[in-house]
Write a structure and sequence with these properties.
10 helices; MetI-like fold; about 70% helix; mainly alpha
Length: about 260
């Protein structure tokens, strides 16, 4: 009973957040959808939620429930950790190469990054690869700066000096000393960065630059539904909007939980 109370009071929001993210990430593979998310049904277009269509249908007869679920497969498929982490650790060395890395990142941060993302996707084409590349340009500079700042602080510690004096290699210092000491901040920032990425992907899709139909994207679904709000078809924008809200809230909840645990260590 004590364990159940502890889970309910302290960890329930985090558990629910993981369930939400797992559902959107793998729902496309787990659910046996009643209606094909890529099949239109003109006869049933603009059907209200309930009955055969849980979330209703859109202007061409797409099932909104199945498309809201599978949209997470694309909108959540963004990994900045692999790129931001190595750059931050490389830049934590006080060398000319580290300074060059930061100068390049400063150059990207000098531009309005959302505008830069729009230009990249508009010039090179609306596909997932270019959208992810645009998101990387937006988020990696701030991610790298945070990792570099944390790593520089740890490098000033005595145990790093001792390890260096004992002849430890750079690889060993990074894997055995730097990474364990910045892991909490790293995971928290990864959650926050991914939450921000979801919003940017939705924004790109909303203005018509991003994932190409018939692929589902929360932003493009909201954009299509916004044209019918005035005539009372509210469900077309509501459910993908709730998906964005729940995903961002879940990432923020997880990041706050990680930070609290990290501060207690």
């Amino acid at each position: 009973m004590k364990l159940v109370k502890k889970i309910n009071k302290q960890n329930l929001p985090v558990i629910l957040s993981f369930i939400v993210l797992f559902n959107f990430s793998f729902g496309a593979f787990l659910y046996n959808f009643t209606h094909d998310p890529y099949a239109t049904n003109i006869i049933e277009r603009l059907s209200t939620p309930g009955g055969a269509y849980l979330f209703g249908t859109d202007e061409v007869g797409f099932d909104i429930f199945s498309r809201t679920i599978i949209a997470g497969k694309i909108d959540l498929f963004i990994s900045l950790l692999i790129i931001g982490l190595p750059l931050g650790l490389m830049a934590s060395d006080k060398t000319k190469n580290a300074d060059r890395i930061m100068k390049v990142l400063d150059m990207f941060q000098a531009f309005p990054l959302l505008v830069l993302a729009i230009v990249i996707v508009a010039m090179w084409g609306n596909n997932i690869r270019n959208v992810i590349f645009a998101i990387i340009l937006i988020n990696v500079p701030r991610f790298t700066r945070l990792i570099r700042s944390e790593a520089l602080t740890v490098r000033e510690s005595r145990f790093i000096e001792v390890a260096t004096a004992m002849g430890a290699s750079k690889t060993r210092i990074i894997s055995k000393h730097l990474l364990p000491n910045i892991l909490g901040t790293l995971l928290a920032q990864a959650s926050i960065t991914t939450a921000h990425s979801i919003v940017v992907v939705a924004a790109l899709s909303f203005i018509g630059i991003g994932v190409v139909p018939p692929e589902a994207s929360w932003g493009s679904m909201i954009r299509a539904g916004s044209q019918y709000m005035i005539t009372g078809q509210w469900w077309m924008s509501l459910f993908p909007g709730l998906a964005i809200f729940l995903s961002v809230l879940s990432f923020n909840t997880i990041s706050q939980y990680i930070l609290r645990k990290y501060e207690q260590i």
